[in-house]
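lol ok so funny story. i was supposed to be doing the assay writeup but got distracted and ended up predicting the structure for this chain instead. priorities right. anyway since i did it might as well share w the group, maybe its usefull for someone
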Amino acid sequence: MTTLIKLEITRALRNKKFLFFSVIYPPALYLIIAGGADSKPIPGMKLDMALYFMVSMATLGALTAVLMGNSERIAKERETGWVRQLRLTALPGRGYVAAKMASAATVSLPSILLVMIVAAAVKGVRLEAWQWISIAAGTWLGSFVFAALGVAIGYLATGDAVRPITILCYFGLALLGGLWMPLTSLPQWAQNIAEWLPTHAYTALGTAVEAGGAPHVKDVAILAGYLLVFAGGAAWLYRKDTRKA
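and the output, tada:
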């Protein structure tokens, strides 16, 4: 499994398009959105634009890395027979799923750190040391939820259908989760839905720390629940795909 993780990370680092959208794009988008913003608090929130979008763009970069890249790669590997070839090795099914999740989450780390560095260097964001560490760690750990979703979609969809399904999930979760704009800018019905989405809980981990507190138990529980559902679904789809093979 360790060998497969190393291989997946190497493949991702060689993909220039993947690196642009998962590593370079989020900090660039952060500068576009928050670059000219003042330090006034966002209506209905205690955070200003620089603080809020530092977390949302870090989560967006992690979401791009673990979801967009993972699902398409797995669907293509199934079609080309690479997954069937791996079944002939000593690698167990759970090892394949875990390797995909771990490698995707590892690649997401540079994006998270780069957004935080840009926020500190360009926008002058200043936090306590424990807050920087907590935000980085929470954002990285939370990305495993969406890495599991990427694996599940990769086994659920065919090579032709995986991209539109992934894009629909990506933009839907990002918009309703408050990654593109604060939830206070959305209608009340959308805010009610967003409270139970994994992206909202994911972003809330960092914003709670920025406000000087700890992540809410509800948000942690929501992420844990989605992780179990997505990982369980990925494992079930893997076994189903094995029986077909």
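DSSP finds ten helices and no strands in the chain. The longest helix spans residues 49-80.
back to the writeup now i swear
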